[in-house]
Design brief:
The chain has three domains: 34-45 and 296-372, conserved putative lor/sdh protein from methanococcus maripaludis s2 fold, CATH 2.40.420; 49-58 and 202-290, Elongation Factor Tu (Ef-tu), domain 3; 93-168, Helix Hairpins (Orthogonal Bundle). 26% of the residues lie in helices and 34% in strands. It contains four helices and 24 strands. Strands 1, 18, 19, 20, 23 and 24 form a six-stranded mixed beta sheet that branches. It has a six-stranded antiparallel β-barrel with strand order 3-12-15-14-13-16. Helix 2 packs antiparallel against helix 3 (135-167).
């Protein structure tokens, strides 16, 4: 009986303790992920032809040693901007200055011999007139005079060469531009076999050259109603290596007069202003050429595009506020936007911010970001 009473008391205590505990609440539902959307709009876009080209300096100068000697001075630092006439390298001058002075002395000596030969010939010519001299003496002095004149010419030529060699001890740039790395340092022996000491390239303006198919050339000629060899009125746009559009417009300047028989293309050259030196000699560049009148196209930010094994798609928010996949076909890219040829309609809500936070079929919290579109996070 005592055990039963104790059991009942224990149960009563447990019930009382359970009654004192607070009731546990169910966790609050997770809010839908927040995304930024834009409404698909129609804009006027000019069709473009795209090409891969290469940047090329208008002028290039390779500094080389034309005489042999030890390098005494370097008048620039790597990457410096230089102007035409600026000295770059100085080769020791002593032996070449001495050669010039020796050549000058040889010329003076030869001229003295020539003057003496001239006097001798003049005397012989006068004597033969009065029968006091002989014709043989006249002929001999004439030959001596001719030989002296030839010696003067020979020594003057040697002086010219000596002066030229002395001038080669100073290497200057004939063009404006930017100089690269020096291949030699002070005190080293340089000569013609040393090769290129440094290279100067002009960089403003600058060329971009790209191949264009003959079919495209014919289309452009039809659109511009005439010969486009000199590119009157044709503008060229470039894209930098990081994908950003170049902020300068190029001019279509020249179409090659020869066709590449393997590719059926001709090389086209465009000239771009390059004040910030964003285009570097030898770099690849994507260029676009206008190929028609502006047309109305649906456009979205390029950052909204996604790619999988099937192809290109975007995520939209449907009427039920759910994220859905839309397969699209893209057209021309203009700055940060791209035309959509198929797959979207005007007014569709395309997700541009927070794409990585959602999955197809998931309810989302959409906010229209309007002018901020394209900054996908």
């Amino acid at each position: 009986m005592k055990c039963s009473l104790r059991s009942l008391a224990s149960v009563a205590v447990c019930v009382a303790l359970a009654a004192c505990k607070p009731t546990e609440q169910a966790p609050a539902p997770t809010p839908p992920p927040a995304v930024g959307v834009i409404s698909v709009e129609s804009k006027a876009i000019t069709p473009f032809l795209s090409f891969i080209g290469r940047v090329k300096a208008i002028q290039t100068f390779q500094a080389r040693a034309r005489v042999e000697g030890f390098l005494q001075k370097i008048d620039f630092h790597d990457g410096q901007r230089v102007k035409a006439g600026d000295p770059l390298y100085q080769i020791e001058r002593t032996q070449y200055q001495a050669a010039v002075e020796q050549a000058q002395a040889n010329v003076a000596a030869a001229e003295a011999v020539e003057r003496n030969a001239q006097f001798a010939f003049n005397r012989a010519a006068e004597l033969v007139k009065s029968s006091a001299g002989t014709q043989a003496t006249v002929d001999q002095t004439r030959a001596t005079l001719d030989s002296a004149k030839a010696s003067v010419l020979q020594n003057q030529a040697a002086l010219t060469i000596a002066n030229e060699s002395l001038g080669y001890t100073e290497i200057s740039t004939p063009i404006d531009g930017r100089i690269g790395f020096t291949a030699v340092t002070l005190g080293n022996l340089v000569n013609a076999a040393t090769g290129v000491l440094a290279t100067v390239v002009s960089d403003d303006p600058i060329y971009v050259e790209f191949p264009v198919a003959m079919r495209q050339i014919a289309d452009l000629e039809a659109q511009h109603k005439g010969d486009i060899s000199n590119g009157d009125g044709i503008k060229v746009l470039a894209t930098l290596a990081n994908g950003k559009p170049y902020d300068q417009v190029g001019d279509w300047k020249f179409v090659s007069n020869q066709v590449d028989q393997q590719t059926d293309t001709v090389l086209v050259r465009a000239t771009f202003p390059n004040p910030q030196r964003a285009l570097l000699d030898g770099a690849f560049a994507t260029v676009k050429v206008e190929s028609g009148e502006p047309q109305q196209r649906l456009v979205i930010p390029r950052s909204a595009l996604q790619l999988d094994q099937i192809g290109v798609y975007v995520l939209i928010v449907d009427a039920d506020k759910k994220a859905q996949v839309r397969r699209v076909t893209t057209g021309e890219a203009v700055n940060t936007e791209i035309a959509i040829a198929s797959g979207l309609q005007t007014g569709d809500k395309v997700i541009v911010d927070g794409i990585q936070k959602v999955r197809p079929g998931q309810v989302v919290g959409a906010t229209d970001v309007g002018g901020d579109a394209g900054a996908a996070k």
